[in-house]
Design brief:
Length: 255
């Protein structure tokens, strides 16, 4: 049986993907196709390149990414992410989809054409960064005269990109919606509104996952909690361990 992996966006919450993946790999899961949006695109690319979840976490904790994100002197965003290309090319020197060990598919929103674009051939690093450009925060990313922003604007769970290529979809979603957390700031209003908008478009795609992993504890974190990387990793890993009987049953059925 061929397993496909779909990874959502979610800002810093996407670090939990790594903990989930560590748990899945320990149980014996292997993936023949990966699709991802935003933070899920970065995680998917690094995994597809051969890095382990622990290695990716160490890269996140030791790489001063903020030094390579600079102010944008335009009206289209507060920050620019293009200088981060150099960082990722350090870890992905081939800069090519074809060089990855697992086929990878990245989605980004094309503002020029008003549609979703799936990148899965050719250069790798720039499409990956384009998928992460949160509108209003990052200036749109230019590739071949097109402007791109975060893939989550149109598709935060790109199941359909690989569902015809595999027999079983494992989806990892890091944006649980819980009403318990009160809204006390403008940032809170913006974040809750964004999650609601994305969630409404994602609900049907979540139902198409044969196995959906969505750690509920992630609702305690926001999309900018980058300094809590190890906590987020732990949340993903511990939740995946807690559903171990379901994982074993899934693998047993696949044999």
């Amino acid at each position: 049986m061929k397993f496909g992996l779909v990874l959502s966006g979610g800002g810093a919450r996407g670090i939990a993907h790594l903990g989930v993946l560590k748990g899945l790999l320990e149980e014996g899961f292997t993936f023949s196709q990966i699709a991802g949006t935003s933070a899920g695109a970065i995680t998917g690319v690094m995994l597809a390149n051969g890095y382990t979840p622990d290695e990716i976490l160490r890269i996140i904790e030791t790489t001063p990414l903020y030094r390579h994100i600079r102010p944008a002197f335009t009206r289209m965003g507060l920050l620019r992410i293009d200088r981060a290309e150099a960082i990722f090319r350090t870890y992905l020197p081939h800069d090519s989809f074809e060089a990855l060990k697992i086929p990878m598919h990245i989605v980004a929103t094309d503002l020029t054409e008003g549609c979703l674009t799936v990148f899965d051939t050719g250069e790798l690093v720039r499409p990956m960064l384009a998928s992460c450009c949160l509108p209003g925060i990052f200036e749109p990313y230019r590739i071949n005269k097109h402007q791109y922003v975060d893939g989550a604007v149109l598709n935060n769970m790109p199941v359909e990109v690989i569902e015809q290529k595999v027999d079983f979809i494992v989806g990892v979603h890091c944006n649980p919606f819980v009403l318990q957390k009160p809204i006390t700031s403008i940032k809170g209003v913006l974040e809750r509104s964004l999650i609601l908008a994305v969630r409404s478009k994602t609900r049907e795609r979540l139902s198409r996952c044969n196995l959906l992993i969505e750690p509920p504890e992630l609702s305690r974190y926001d999309v900018f909690d980058w300094r809590r990387a190890r906590e987020l990793f732990r949340v993903g890993y511990q939740y995946t361990q807690s559903i171990k009987p379901q994982l074993i049953q899934t693998l047993t059925s696949a044999l």
